[in-house]
């Protein structure tokens, strides 16, 4: 038919979108890159528009290039070994770096057009270079810093008269860099106690330039996500609740009709009875390029972000107790920051959603609570106190705090090994001790050589239950427990329509043990109620290098662990163990209708294991979280090269077989793929794109669910902070932003006209012509 052709043409006008990944930079993701604590600043003998800043990382150093005009970070370079000093050979105008590592010779540093060039050199014995880092700024007779009045004065070295003077901020800490001509010009950079670095340039006592860099985020030790709730649907929810109040269904129906009529009338009134305005508003047609409608499209975007749960705060805490909230929907812009009054070092903090409180803990057992009244205003101080009374000794040090019971605000506090005689931890509560615990709670702790099971007694005491001790040469190199997850599907449907039932027992922990003497590694999976070993896997054919990170995570019915093996060939490996009730299809051992306590009876799982190679060294591994756990889980990987990637769990499946062994039924299975041992890195899965990050050993990789089931927010919080959104199964629940609602509705209208107007018309004409009726 002519019109079906025409319809196809219409469809082909609607453009297809293609993904270009770098355009996601700063749109779906954002990053804050830090320098850290400045140990040395080079401002002379280089380009006068730049600063070179030296800062120390865990066991290496970082050189950063900063624009002297605005403080922007231009480039960074981490060195292979720690830099102890930077020296200047004045005769040759050479800047060279000296390393801690005695085997590394000094190297020359050159800065050319915003890049570093580092080349090894031999320093001649004849030259006498001067140290830039150890240059004393305090003992100079031309500078007077008055700490009481917070002022800095420059005096003339000959006449001892003050040439320039300026005020310093009240939290002034140190003078880091100063350059002056003792007449009219002064340029200096100071640090504050809050780890802020402030630069001033004075000309004739007038401030001509100033900027600051906040480096307090480089010392982040913990983070929490705070949701910003969407209240736009509250009136609708209230309406539905009101509707349920009616006894009579007709009254309820009348109420619904009336509210909808009211809403339509209001809509018409708001658009001044103009049908054109109503249609454009309804279809968002006015979002074409127009200054005032840009504001509108921004608002619409913001409304959607709020509805989709993308609007969140990332709250981070550093060692000094500074808590900063970053707006995740606004490039990590600082929303507020507060300073805890606890004695440092601060250990961690918790977010209690029901009472909107942040609870900060320090190493010695003191705490402080802050209440967040609205997400965008700084929280207010509530109470402080100490848990020390419930500690067995006064000098116990805390290593970990975990939330136990939301209602009673109780926490399990674990002590650092050896600081608190033999006690492992205590249970403390911020709330009132209410009813006795109805449900028994179990806690599993571990140290380097043992794993201990505990049950919490009715009076909130820790009672030991079982213990696993390792042999003398063995030590635990990785440990993980099963997170609480929603079970969506208890089985895996095979291609033959049979079902393999997953082993969904929740009380599971797993650990990796390395034997120093035999250099062998094994992985155990245990039942945390009874301490029973469910699965044990020995790796005795590989030479495992435990200097590389060993990661382990537990998901629904699987355990994934990664390690670096040196033999047979050096390679990063990812292994997976999947647990099933039985490997025979359609055999179910648990009885979902008859609950028996796992303490009385338990089923042992059957398992499958598989090993994969990965082309890059994995430093951290974490699991993506979504709202209902329906979306395919993804493993989020932090790589040694500073990139962040993810891998859908389906790729590392224990059930993949070589193609030759796959039956036709196997190929019918959802997302079935033949086993290929090497997992390639797919560019589309590198979510850090072209950026390079510096994450230290203590960095944390986390994920939080959004209101969209398909989408998960991923953050890596360490020296740098990076957040992005991932959709491991594709954004199946979001319309493309350039989805053409107008064209779709237009097509529907055309179809409607064709079916209900043209077709009857044509049929009628045909009949008329058959009957030879002339019009
Ligand atoms: C430093 O910043 C200023 C002002 O934004 C800019 O004009 C200049 O080009 C920058 N310098 C470098 C080297 O990027
Ligand atoms: C509809 O609006 C009128 C006046 O604005 C109000 O009196 C009435 O209660 C509303 N009806 C419903 C069902 O909301
Ligand atoms: C932009 O939109 C406003 C109404 O939102 C309208 O008054 C104005 O004329 C538009 N400007 C252009 C250039 O179309
Ligand atoms: C960041 O937040 C500050 C206030 O907290 C605000 O003044 C500023 O405009 C924000 N910047 C951006 C880019 O939104
Ligand atoms: C609580 O704060 C007050 C005032 O800052 C302080 O004097 C007191 O020592 C603090 N208590 C604890 C347990 O830290
Ligand atoms: C539930 O299981 C227990 C132990 O297996 C058994 O004794 C009991 O009869 C079962 N109850 C039902 C209703 O099947």
Largest sheet: 5 strands, antiparallel
Residue fraction in strands: 35-45%
Helix fraction bin: 10-25%
**What's the alpha carbon Rg, rounded to whole Å?**
33 Å
Helix/strand class? mainly beta
**Distance N to C terminus:** 26 Å
Give the strand line-up of the largest sheet: 9-8-7-6-10
Number of helices: 7
- What is the mean pLDDT? 86
Ligand inventory: 2-acetamido-2-deoxy-beta-D-glucopyranose
Number of domains: 5
Unreliable segments (pLDDT under 50, ≥5 consecutive)? 1-20
Count of β-strands: 48
Sum up the overall morphology in one term: globular
Structure description:
With 775 residues, this protein is mainly β. The chain has five domains: 1-28 and 617-726, no CATH class; 29-214, no CATH class; 388-469, no CATH class; 474-614, no CATH class; 735-775. 14% of the residues lie in helices and 39% in strands. The protein contains seven helices and 48 strands. A five-stranded antiparallel sheet has the order 9-8-7-6-10, with no helix packed on it. Helix 2 packs antiparallel against helix 3 (249-270). The longest helix is centred in the last third of the chain and has 30 residues, at 741-770. The protein is globular. It binds 2-acetamido-2-deoxy-beta-D-glucopyranose (6 copies). Residues 290, 292-293 line the site of one 2-acetamido-2-deoxy-beta-D-glucopyranose (NAG).
